[in-house]
Design goal:
Blueprint lengths: L31 H8 L1 H5 L17 E6 L5 H9 L3 E6 L3 H13 L5 E4 L3 H7 L7 E5 L17 H10 L5 E6 L4 H11 L3 E3 L5 H4 L9 H5 L6 E7 L1
Parallel strand pairs: 1-2, 1-4, 2-3, 4-5
Antiparallel strand pairs: 5-7, 6-7
Length: 234
C-alpha cells in the first residue's frame, strides 16, 4: 500500500483507549418526550460495538450499511425504509440529532436500524473485515482551520481501516458543501489504492443521485452547492 504524509502509523485497534471526540454533543434542552426516548427506545436500538452484526437485527439482513454523523436522521431513515434487505447503523454524537432520529423511529418504526450515540469510528473498528457494503459520510464537520485538519474524518489511516472492513464492490459515499474539505477529501480518496471514483463527468458530482435523498442541511446549502462523491472498493 502506498504511503501518504498524513497516514498515522498507529491506527487505533479495537479495544484501544478511546480517542478524543471533537465537536459539540450538547445543544438545546430536550423535551420530556425526547429525553424519554433516549432512555427507552435508544436502549432497545443501541448498536453493540464488537458484537457480531447478524445477531443485532431481529430479521436477517443481507448487507450492512453505516452512516456516521447522520444529523437529524432524514437520510438514514429514508435509506432504511427503502432498503429493508440492509441493516443500517447510524452514529451521531450530537444529543439533539439522536433525539430527532428517535422521534422518527417512534412515529415510523423500522426494524433494520441500529444507533450509536458516540464516535462512529468505534463501530468501524469493531466490525468484521469485509462486512460493510455501504458507508455514508454526508456533510461532515469540515474543521476549516488548518491546525484542525487532523480532526477531519477523511484521513489515510481511516481509509485504510475502511478498506479492511469493506469488500470488493462496496460503496463509499461522501458529500460536502465546504470548498476546502472537498479537495482535501478527494486527494486522499483518489490516492488510496483501495478505492476507485465512479465519476465519468461533472454531472456525477454536481447532481445528487436519485437514491440519495436530500436533507434539511443540504437544502440550506450553507456554504455553497454541495458536491456528491461515490467511490467503490476495488
Amino acid at each position: 500500500m502506498t504511503d501518504h504524509p498524513d497516514r498515522d502509523k498507529s491506527v487505533h485497534p479495537p479495544g484501544a483507549g478511546r480517542r478524543k471526540l471533537y465537536g459539540r454533543r450538547k445543544g438545546p434542552k430536550l423535551s420530556a418526550r425526547q429525553a424519554g426516548l433516549r432512555q427507552t427506545l435508544l436502549a432497545d436500538l443501541a448498536w453493540k460495538v464488537g458484537v457480531e452484526p447478524a445477531g443485532q437485527f431481529p430479521n436477517t439482513v443481507r448487507e450492512l450499511w453505516l452512516e456516521i454523523g447522520f444529523g437529524a436522521g432524514e437520510h438514514l431513515h429514508w435509506q432504511a425504509a427503502h432498503h429493508p434487505h440492509a441493516g443500517l447503523i447510524g452514529a451521531e454524537p450530537y444529543e439533539m440529532g439522536m433525539a430527532k432520529m428517535l422521534t422518527k423511529l417512534e412515529e415510523k418504526p423500522l426494524n433494520n436500524v441500529r444507533l450509536h450515540e458516540g464516535d462512529g469510528r468505534e463501530i468501524i473498528e469493531g466490525l468484521p473485515d469485509a462486512s460493510l457494503s455501504r458507508f455514508f459520510l454526508l456533510f461532515p464537520d469540515p474543521w476549516p482551520k488548518t491546525r484542525h485538519h487532523k480532526r477531519r474524518f477523511v484521513q489515510m489511516e481511516m481509509l485504510d481501516l475502511l478498506a479492511r472492513k469493506m469488500p470488493a464492490g462496496a460503496e463509499l459515499r461522501f458529500a460536502t458543501d465546504d470548498k476546502s474539505y472537498l479537495p482535501y477529501a478527494l486527494e486522499r480518496l483518489m490516492a488510496h489504492p483501495a478505492f476507485s471514483w465512479t465519476a465519468t463527468g461533472p454531472s456525477d458530482w454536481k447532481n445528487r443521485p436519485a437514491d440519495w435523498p436530500p436533507t434539511r442541511y443540504e437544502t440550506k446549502a450553507i456554504k455553497g452547492p454541495p458536491t456528491f462523491l461515490r467511490f467503490l472498493r476495488r
